[in-house]
Amino acid sequence: MNASGQEPTTVYGHVGVVLDSQSEYEELVGMARARGGHAGEKVIVVGSAEPWGRGAALLAPFSLGAGLVGGLRAEVSTAQREGFRGIRVVADMRELGLDSLAARELLEFELDLDRVVSEAGATMVCAYRNDGFTPAAVGAAMCAHPRAFGANREDRGFRMGSTGRGEWRVSGEIDRSNADAFEVAMTTAAGMSARMRLTFDDLRFIDVAGMRVLARVTAAFPALGLTLVDPPPSFLRCWELFGFASAGRVTTARRAG
Prior knowledge:
Elements: E1 14-19, H1 22-39, E2 41-46, H2 56-59, H3 66-81, E3 86-92, H4 103-120, E4 123-129, H5 135-142, E5 147-149, E6 158-164, E7 167-174, H6 179-190, E8 195-199, E9 203-206, H7 208-220, E10 225-229, H8 233-241, E11 250-253
Parallel strand pairs: 1-4, 1-5, 2-3, 3-4, 7-8, 7-9, 8-10, 10-11
Antiparallel strand pairs: 6-7
């Protein structure tokens, strides 16, 4: 449960949960199945002691990107044909082989998954057990989960998520301490689309280190059209002051409505 009093099974989209034991995971699975039955959702479980559902087998033979992404899209279509209101996947991420990835690779994978979850209209609950991942790896993975629960011991301080169609939202704080992770996130997102909109939802603070990340990413992707949506006036003043606006490759816009 997080500070708002919500539980992982009551929210939608891309959800990250940090757990300490298998028993906590089984409890999460039980709550998800109960919630799914009440809400008319198809619930798929990966990594439970209980028998896997038919759909879970499609997600189990995991290879970075293709296996999980393709399986999720297929299951959304199947659930719709079967008359379910939605799909909720609950996965022990160690069972998918993610414990073999470095922190950077975890963040890259989870951002790609976040985009697919958003575009497919699914809910994906990614469970990271502390006995299977280092705190640094968990902290990196949680950056790509707009909704996160549990004790994230090395929280990197920002969240980045996709709303689909090349638009991403960033929240939290970005400074020298997490600019490296932010650069991984921005580089990954920039590689997915020729045009990218970055919305500063609930971004409380960004310093010059974060601004340099934006400048480096646009330089690394010459064909990228990056639009900053609703940046605060303080950001725009600093963007001008430090000379980042002179390149003219980043535009700003107001959110519609």
